[in-house]
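Input for the complex:
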Amino acid sequence: MTLRHAVLAALLDEERSGYQLAKAFDLGVANFWYAKPQQLYAELARLEQGGLISGREVVQDGRPNKRMFTVTGTGLAELEKFTAATAKPSVLRDDLMVKVQAADRVDTDTLIAQLTDRIGFAQDKVDLFERLLRTMRGERAEAEFLRHGRPIGPYLTCLRGLAFERGNLDWCERAITVLRDRQAAADA
Amino acid sequence: MTLRHAVLAALLDEERSGYQLAKAFDLGVANFWYAKPQQLYAELARLEQGGLISGREVVQDGRPNKRMFTVTGTGLAELEKFTAATAKPSVLRDDLMVKVQAADRVDTDTLIAQLTDRIGFAQDKVDLFERLLRTMRGERAEAEFLRHGRPIGPYLTCLRGLAFERGNLDWCERAITVLRDRQAAADA
DNA sequence: CCTGACTAGTCAGTTTCTTGAGTATCATGG
DNA sequence: CCATGATACTCAAGAAACTGACTAGTCAGG
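Predicted:
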C-alpha cells in the first residue's frame, strides 16, 4: 500500500491531474516511485472516496476536461502516520542483475549488449535528473538551496535517483570491462 | 516472470534445495533478487513440471528430508533466451523515498528517525556483502579474481549490491545533515 | 520440562501490478 | 489531407507478489 502514499506525496506541493501524475510516475521519469496510469487513476478514485484527497473539475477548451486533486487534512494525517511506521527496506530487483548472475553460463556478447543498452538508459536518466535538480534550485548554489530552498523533499529524492543511476552506469561499465578482459584471456 | 529466471540463475552454480534458495532470496541477504519462501517453492514446482530443473530427494537423518534441484539443458536454454530479450530497466521503489518526498510537510524528527534506521540496515548489508566478496575471491586480489576467478556472475551482482547499499548509506547521511541544518536554521 | 530457534516445507486467500484495448478531441508535420 | 502524437481518461482480465497460518521433527538454553 505504498502507491497510496506515493500519490499523496506527489500531490503535496501542488494540485495535479491524474494525467500529470501519470507523466510523473512514468518509467522514463520516475524519481521516487513508478506506476502505470491505470494504477494511478484507480488509486486516485480510492483516495477521493476515502476523503484523503479532493478533486475539482477543470473545464478546458481545445482539450478534454480534467480533474485536479489536492491532499486534504485527513490525507496529510495519513502520510504522517505512514512516515512514522517502520518501512520495509527496499531491495534491488532488476532483470539485468539476474542476467549477470548467470554470466558464467550465458553468452558473453549477448550479456554485453544488454549492459550497453542499460548504459544508454542510465545516461539519459542521469542527464534528466541533473536538469531537474538545476531547475529546482534555480540560481542558487546547491549548498544554499539545501539550507533554505523549498520544496526540499523532491530535491532529496532526485539526488538519490541521480546517485542510483550513476551507480548503474558505473557498474555496467565495470562489468563490461571485466567480461571483455575475461573473453580476451579465454581466447588467448 | 523474472522470478523464474532468478531461480534458474541461482541454481546454476550448484544444486540447491528450496530451503537454501529461500535463505538466499531473503530480505536480509538478497543480493540480486528478493522473494518469499512460498513464492520460491511454487516456482520450483512449476519449473520442475516444465522440465527446466530436475529435483532429487535427499534422505537425511536428524532432520527432514529435502529436495535438491539442478538446472536442465532446457532450463539453461530458457535462461539464454531470457538474457537475449530486452530487459525493462529497474526503477527505485522505496517506502523511504516516499517519506522523504513528503519532507516539507511531515515531522522532521520522525523522518530523521527513519533515515537513521535505514543507515543501520544498510551498514549491515555493506558488511555482509564485503564478507561475501572476500569469501568468493579467497586469497586472490580483486583484480586477479575479476580476470580469472569463477563464478564471476555472483561476484559482479554482489558488487552492485554493495554499491547500492553504500549509496543508500551516503544518501541517508546527507539527508539527515540537510534536514538537521534546516531545522536549526528554522529554530534560530 | 518448556520455550524458542532451525530445518524443510505446504496451503489458502488477498492485494498489487501489469497487459492490452478502447474513447474522444485537438494540434502538428509532411 | 492524412497520420502521428499529445491530452485525458476508462474497463477488464490475468499474472505476480504478499500475508498469515500450519505441519513436524531436532536441538540448545534456561
